[in-house]
Amino acid sequence: MERTQSSLLQIQPPTYGNLVTILSIDGGGIRGIIPATILENKYRWSCNCNAKCSERPLFAAKDIKPFYLEHCPNIFPQNKHLGSIGKLFRSLAGPKYDGKYLHDVVREKLGDIPVHHTLTNIVIPTFDIKTMQPTIFSSYKIKKNPCMDSRL
Predict the structure, then answer these.
(1) Which residues contact 25 (CB under 8 A, 6 or more apart)?
(2) Which of 51, 53, 81, 129 has its CA at 20 to 30 Å from residue 116's CA atom?
(3) CATH H-level, domain 5-148: superfamily
(4) Angle between helical axes of 61-75 and 100-110 (0-180°, round to 10)
(5) What is the DSSP letter of 114?
(6) How far is the CA of 52 from the CAs of 30, 58, 60, in angstroms?
(7) 58 and 51 in contact (C-beta within 8 Å)?
(8) CA angle in degrees (0–180, nearest 5) for 106-67-101
(9) Residue 15 CB: number of other CB atoms within 10 A?
(10) Could you list the residue ranges that cross the membrane (predicted)?
(11) What radius of gyration do the chain's Cα atoms show?
């Protein structure tokens, strides 16, 4: 079942008085395994549910750790041929990892699913390297600005 614009307007933010509930996870590369393991254990004990979007299963907390373990050598390749001086110049030249492999794997898994197809309200903070500015994608912003309804 596809969501319509009117069904999107019915989603209310999770507020409790003056408080807003936010789950923020920042593992910093391969350290993302740590919060992924915590989430997996939390949801293992809190519910027994499965989620699907059309015919394609979406990521669940239990999927993150195996994903990292399988793909981390290609997402975060280690160049063992550089010495200390080489590593210094590389760090000044730009990002340590180009992100191409991660982008390709995520695109393969998620396809063309847009933000408005998520089953819950989401906020995805990103950084636009062309404008050197942060960009925030959220299920709330697409109500006012439909061009923010990008692919996940």
Answers:
(1) 32, 35, 39
(2) 129
(3) Cytosolic phospholipase A2 catalytic domain (3.40.1090.10)
(4) 150
(5) B
(6) 27, 6, 10
(7) yes
(8) 40
(9) 9
(10) none
(11) 18
Contact 36, 68 (CB under 8 A): yes
Say if CB 149 and CB 114 are below 8 A apart.
Answer: yes
Which residue do the tokens 């408005």 mark?
116
Tell me the residue type at 68: Y
3, 11 contact by CB (below 8 A):
no
Contact 141, 124 (CB under 8 A): no
Q: Residue 117: enclosing H or E segment and its boundaries?
A: none
End-to-end, the C-alpha distance of the chain in Å comes to: 18
**pLDDT 10s digits, 3-56:** 555 554 555 555 566 666 666 666 666 677 777 777 777 766 554 444 433 344
- Find out whether 143 and 126 touch, Cβ atoms under 8 Å: no
Which of the listed ranges 28-32, 60-64, 86-90 does the model predict with the highest average pLDDT? Answer: 60-64
| Inter-residue contact 33 to 68 (CB < 8 Å) | yes
Domain ranges of the chain: 5-148
Asked if 101 contacts 75 with a C-beta cutoff of 8 angstroms, the reply is yes
